[in-house]
Amino acid sequence: MEKFPILIMSRHSVRQHPASSIGPTVIGPNIARLVAALLLALSLSTGLAGCASWQEQVSQFDLEDRVVQGAEFHHRVLTNTTGQLARQRHEPVRWHVYIEGDGQPVKFGGRPSPDPTPRSPLLLPVMAQDPQPALYLGRPCYFDTADPACHWARWTLERYSEATVASLATALQQQIGSHDELVLIGHSGGGTLAVLLAPRLAQTRAVITLAGNLDLGSWIQANEYSPLPACLDPQLQPPLPAQIRQWHIAGARDTVIKAEWIQAFAARQPGADVIVLEDADHNSPWADWLPAWLRTLDTAPAPSR
Q1: In which domain, by residue range, is 131 found?
Q2: Does residue 176 belong to any structural domain of this protein?
Q3: How far is CA 32 from the centre of its chain?
Q4: Which residue, of 181, 209, 277, 285, has the fewest CB within 10 Å?
Q5: What is the domain count for the chain?
Q6: Cα–Cα distance measured from residue 117 to residue 103, given in angstroms and rounded to the nearest whole number
Q7: In a domain, 301, yes or no
Q8: How many CB atoms sit inside 10 A of residue 267's CB?
Q9: pLDDT in tens, 129-180
Q10: Of 19-33, 91-105, 226-240, 256-270, which gets the smallest average pLDDT?
Q11: Can you give the CATH number for the domain in which 217 is found?
């Protein structure tokens, strides 16, 4: 596999500086920036499965496909073959839980999209081919759940709301055993939700974000987007517990979420490391790089400090 140069910054070497972050678009007055961000969102997922839709990938990788009820919303949950076997054995396992980015929340011109589901999910093929037990946790109103609770505000102005996070937590708890452990993995807006979910789930051992949207306030201000008062901002939440290991991975060439913004968020986290991939942008080479990195990663929790 091709090797990608990286710069590793330990939790002790990160320095605090003005933070900002950005992710897929929010309805707002700056249409030029809105369209530019949309183009980036629509270019997601050129990795392991090319341009395959999520339905095609379910068939291709023989994934278990469930729609489960969360606290408020329906969620599609896909499980890889290793995870299916782990369930049959009824033994405690460590799950890799993947959460996709924001997909297509709005159309060109700023109007809400009728369906936010990404055309070709970036993390789904990574989950499917993960040698560890792994599941793909669908966000509310994504992946054709036919949920009557869905409305365009759910995937735009409320995409990181308390209702969204609580419903994801409930859905995930239904899919794992009481003695299982969790590693939460999220790209872009999925990284936002991974960080927000982590302290709600006692079984969380690690959080891994890829180009994570971790400071909503700075993102909105920098891009003149509409406020998101219904959303939870990771930067404004208490730091995660020290026993949860954190890896926040950024692309040096990412113009959507800049590396220094991720470093600033990680600086206030007690168990966080930052990795900057020199040749990475917002969407690549995550699908190629992540599987090899996960195989070599020691996800044991950091000692309490």
Answers
A1: 6-296
A2: yes
A3: 26
A4: 285
A5: 1
A6: 5
A7: no
A8: 17
A9: 999 999 999 999 999 999 999 999 999 999 999 999 999 999 999 999 999 9
A10: 19-33
A11: 3.40.50.1820
